[in-house]
Write a structure and sequence with these properties.
CATH superfamily of the largest domain: Gcn5-related N-acetyltransferase (GNAT)
Order of helices and strands: EHEHEEEHEEHHEHEHEEEEEHEE
Distance between the termini: 28 Å
Low-confidence stretches: none
CATH class of the largest domain: Alpha Beta
CATH topology of the largest domain: Aminopeptidase
Mean pLDDT: 94
Structural class: alpha+beta
Oligomer: single chain
Number of strands: 16
Bound molecules: ligand EN5
Length: 427
């Protein structure tokens, strides 16, 4: 039963008799004079507010709301703990509108922030359509106010505000299933600090293994993974080249992806920021200044809510109350047809050869990525099964997690997508 979603322009669970057109909206654009001028009605105990991201104390309130009430795994053992620096980055790309950082506060005089929802505007390419859409994220309601059905109110209000800017479609993700995902993508995890993962309950020691054996299994040392020559942190000078590689890669390999339409947007999302976003490029050693590949990941810590065994909680001097997790963000490599490569085995086509080369190069890149994340003291490296991630998961010893990320469109009818056709990474 989906009392709210059944009223919304999304695919319904029960198949409808009327055949809908694909790659088109469910409902037509709403003329400005038909959009409510007033904010969506809410119970008198609450009032609407905007969260001013340039105000550190409001950002701290948001940090507290999310740290105490946002997404957890199915067993309530871990909860996302986005930092204020991270939120400043995630909520503030070029062309961001302050009306799209929406909060609910108590009217009892305490003024406490009890709920939040955010959106940003992006150019999205879906199959052959390129459209400006909203990306909705960080919908969060204080745990004590669940069941009051405030989420539909927040969703209606942000929809209204985007409609006022002539944006009628949105993309969003959730760990839960609602009507109706365009793709369901599993999470994968690559342990970097297996001991801490086991002691915090993030992973389990297989029955046929000792901790020492497990540590050996996941060991990453430079001798085993020779550094790619020319690998270095991305700098501002690299922005135009990274943008080109990324757009080309996403366009060639995926069917749902952001179009990085300006250098400013590319710079915002990919230029390294301390303890937030980490981006590395490969500079061609024979052609100084020329970038051939890049990869990036972000830091999203999780609070450890309950430990498997309290006696493990303070083993040694390490802090086991927060998990330092890296999440794979964007990567790109040249997808140009390999030139000057001899095909020894004439039974394989150029297409297959290129797939093979791409796979080998991506594995090498991601190996180096894991090594860097390990050196930067991350506990685990995570990714969602999208893009070309399937090509390296097994070789690099990722294991499937118990969670998945579901992708959704609001007011846009599409056929479901395969995992590797998804090219949008959400924070
Ligand atoms: C915002 N737009 O479930 C929406 N995480 O697998 C965000 N599991 O970390 C929605 N339960 O499997 C986010 N360890 C949806 C995700 C919500 C969070 C979530 C899962 C993803 C997760 C961990 C911990 C499970 C703890 C018990 C997990 C196993 C790792 C193991 C490593 C060794 C090889 C096998 C797998």
């Amino acid at each position: 039963e989906h009392k709210f979603w059944d009223t919304q322009p999304v695919p319904s669970v029960k198949p409808t008799s009327k055949a809908k057109k694909f790659d088109a909206p469910f409902i037509p654009d709403i003329p400005v004079d038909k959009i409510p001028k007033e904010q969506t009605p809410i119970p008198p105990e609450y009032k609407w507010c905007n969260i001013d991201i340039s105000n550190p104390s409001e950002m701290h309130e948001l940090y507290n709301l999310l740290s105490n009430h946002y997404v957890e795994d199915a067993d309530e053992m871990f909860r996302f703990r986005y930092s204020t620096d991270f939120l400043n980055w995630a909520l503030n790309p070029p062309n961001q509108n302050p009306d799209w950082h929406i909060g609910l506060r108590k009217t009892d005089g305490s003024n406490v922030l009890v709920a939040f929802i955010s959106g940003l505007e992006l150019q999205l390419k879906i199959n052959s359509v390129s459209k400006r859409m909203a990306e909705i994220n960080f919908l969060c309601i204080n745990k004590s106010l669940r069941k009051l059905r405030l989420a539909p109110v927040l969703i209606r209000e942000i929809t209204r505000r985007f409609n006022l800017s002539k944006i009628y479609q949105a993309i969003y993700t959730a760990g839960i299933q609602i009507p109706t995902p365009i793709s369901v993508c599993r999470y994968f995890h690559r342990p970097l600090n297996p001991k801490k993962l086991i002691n915090s309950g993030f992973s389990r020691l297989p029955h046929d293994m000792t901790l020492a054996k497990l540590v050996m299994k996941y060991r990453l040392s430079p001798e085993h993974t020779p550094q790619i020559r020319g690998l270095r942190l991305m700098t501002e000078k690299d922005v135009p080249q990274v943008r080109k590689i990324l757009n080309k890669y996403l366009n060639a390999r995926t069917k749902v992806h952001q179009v990085f339409d300006t250098d400013a947007i590319t710079k915002h999302w990919l230029l390294p920021r301390k303890d937030v976003i980490f981006t590395y490029v490969v500079e061609d050693v024979t052609k100084p200044g020329k970038i051939t590949d890049f990869f990036s990941y972000y830091l999203l810590p999780s609070t450890v809510l309950k430990k498997k065994d309290p006696s493990n909680a303070k083993s040694g001097k390490s802090d086991y109350s927060i998990l330092h997790s890296a999440y794979l963000f964007y990567y790109g490599l040249n997808t140009e047809p390999a030139s000057g490569v001899e095909i020894e085995d004439s039974s394989i086509s150029y297409k297959e050869l290129n797939e093979k080369l791409l796979k080998e190069r991506l594995i090498a890149l991601m190996k180096n990525c894991l090594l860097i994340a390990k050196n930067e003291n991350f506990d685990v490296f995570n990714c969602v099964l999208i893009q070309d991630n399937a090509t390296f998961l097994e070789d690099l010893k990722f294991g499937q997690g118990d969670g998945s990320l579901n992708y959704y469109f609001y007011n846009w009818n599409v056929r479901p997508f395969k995992n590797n056709e998804i090219g949008l990474t959400m924070l």
